[in-house]
Amino acid sequence: MTDKQTDWNLVEQVKAGDDRAFDTIMERYKRPILGFVYRMIGDAVEAEDVAQDVFARSYQSIRKPAFRQTTAEFSTWLFQVARNAAIDCQRQRKRHPTESLAALDDSGDSVAGAGRTAHEESAARETGEQIAAAVALLPEDQRTVVVLAEYEGLSYKEIAAVMSCTVKSVEARLYRAKQTLQHALRGLLH
Q1: Alpha-carbon distance 146 to 108, whole Å?
Q2: pTM here?
Q3: 159-180: b or e for each residue (b if 16 or more CB lie within 10 Å)?
Q4: Residues in CB range of 34: below 8 A, 6 or more apart
Q5: Residue 36 to residue 145: CA distance in whole angstroms
Q6: Average pLDDT value for residue range 62-75
Q7: Which of 75-84, 134-143, 146-155, 175-184 is modeled with the greatest confidence?
Q8: How remote is the C-alpha of 114 from its chain's centroid?
Q9: With contact defined as beta carbons under 8 Å apart, do 40 and 83 qualify?
């Protein structure tokens, strides 16, 4: 049984009232969704809240009688929910701006490299922060494509499904994003 079948089987179990099946879904997708949301909004504390909202929205949608399995993978549908939640968060931020208290490296994803000196680790962390800052400045559609392709490892076809666009559109957005990032990070790229 593939993960795609397993995920949709879990969804059917949730629809039938088995909340433990949803716990399995949450456990499977917590880190990828949290990482995606964090990279989209750039605030670790807010990302936690948005990720929780993603799972709450997902659960509510799945429990609705009208909810139907799509031909796409479940993860594609879940990333669509996450993308919409991240966009909602960014819109809310624009309406009610506040100063972020979270540092860029609070995601918990960075682990000290084995055998690196303190200087090398510091330089790597600084480079990572500069890249994250440059990605955060991209327009939302380009940032989404970069995060889904480079950080989450989704295929162009999966990204197109998440973003409700064509594969060619994904390719164009990724190309433009990479051009912008190369320009912004040319000091880092020798």
Answers
A1: 20
A2: 0.68
A3: bbbbbeeeeebbeebbeebeeb
A4: 47, 48, 51, 107
A5: 11
A6: 88
A7: 75-84
A8: 27
A9: yes
